[in-house]
Amino acid sequence: MFSIKKLKASKPKPYSNPLKVKVIGVGDKSTYTTADGKEKQLVPLGVADKEDSIKVSLYEVDKLPLLKAGECVVLSNYVYRADPHPTIVVTAVTRVMKTSAFAVPEDVKLTAKAIANPAPAKIITIHDAKKSPIKSLVSIKGRVISEEIIRTVQVRGTDVQVRNVRVKDGTEEVKVALWRDQVDGCKVGEFLEFSNLVTNSYMDEVSLSTTQRTKIQPCDAPPSMLTGTVIAYEKSEFGFSIMVEDRDTFQTVGIPINMVREALECDENSVEDTLSIRIPFSVAVGTTNGIVSSFALV
User: Fold this and answer.
1) 183 within 8 A of 162, measured Cβ to Cβ
2) Which of 139, 207, 288, 297 could bridge to 175 as Cys pair (CB 3.0-4.6 Å)?
3) Quick one: three-class SS letters along 187-250?
4) Cα separations in angstroms, 130 against 105, 145, 176, 195, 212
């Protein structure tokens, strides 16, 4: 019978040769737009035989119930592509038939799993991400500091939603374009991990965009220290919101009243008067996961 190794040594073209494989891994569904503007779904799979593994691009998602992880099947009437990676393309005309079970060597199985669910791009700083080659896949962590309204743009004749946000870490900030179902993936103030973003450049500005493999999830923010000059304040339910100027940037931070009192070395009844008299003054504000952990005069 035809094997994956024989297929990889063959020319890229349609094949009717039956190919017996075991489904090892099933990736996430993604949406793509065809040349005529239609939206369709694609599912990547990792399959293997007793010797080798290969990627399957499932364009006919109605066949997915036949291709669950662990299923042994015989494929026929499929297309083989060699570039950029060896891939079996399953379309509407591809036959998927169940067959007898067989064992797959552990090393081959691990490779097939990685094909279906590849590891995300390495997390790097925003500074390094902006220095990466254009069209590189990168992952970053940072706080969302601003967002624009959702816009609708045309992609291959189809209306697609996009929202730009700005994300900042301890090195730099960058614009991130959130596409399609990712437009509502974050809010201002959240500290998040963005995996598998692609680098772009337009008019000398480097930006990042979500891809079909992007995942956005909350994560712990590293401890940070804000230093600058207090220039204004307002009372809040639990203390004061103070505005800190740091080299032409302004940030408002909520400080509990007991921290302000201890820093200003005054009694509770005179905190606001003392604060008003002392402005402007230099401070260092420590935060962990967005929560103020220290407030001191410097």
Assistant:
1) yes
2) 207
3) CCCCEEEEEEEEEEEECCEEEEECCCCCEEEECCCCCEEEEEEEEEEEECCCEEEEEEEECCEE
4) 41, 17, 11, 15, 20
Give 7's Cβ-side CA count (13 Å radius). Answer: 33
pTM of the model: 0.67
Q: How confident is the model at residue 40 (pLDDT cuts 50, 70, 90)?
A: confident
Under the banding of pLDDT at 50, 70 and 90, the label for residue 127 is very high
Q: Which helix (H) or strand (E) holds 56?
A: strand 53-58
Burial 129-166 (b: 16+ CB within 10 A, else e): bbebeeeebbbbbbbbeebeeeeeeeeeeeebebbbbb
Residue 293 falls in which region: left (phi positive, over 0), alpha (psi -120 to 50) or beta: alpha
**SS3 at position 274:** helix
Is residue 182 helix, strand or coil?
Answer: helix
Paired strand residues for 240: 235, 255
Bridging pattern class, strands 173-179 and 205-209: parallel
Number of neighbours of residue 252 by Cβ within 10 angstroms: 11
d(CA 287, CA 249): 18
- With 80 as the cut, is the pLDDT of residue 32 above it? no
Strands 87-90 and 53-58, by their bridges, are: parallel
Instruction: Write down the H helix ranges in the chain.
Output: 4-8, 106-116, 126-131, 257-264, 271-278
Torsion angle of the four alpha carbons 224, 230, 231, 235, in this order, in degrees rounded to the nearest 10: 90
Structure tokens belonging to residue 138: 């990168």
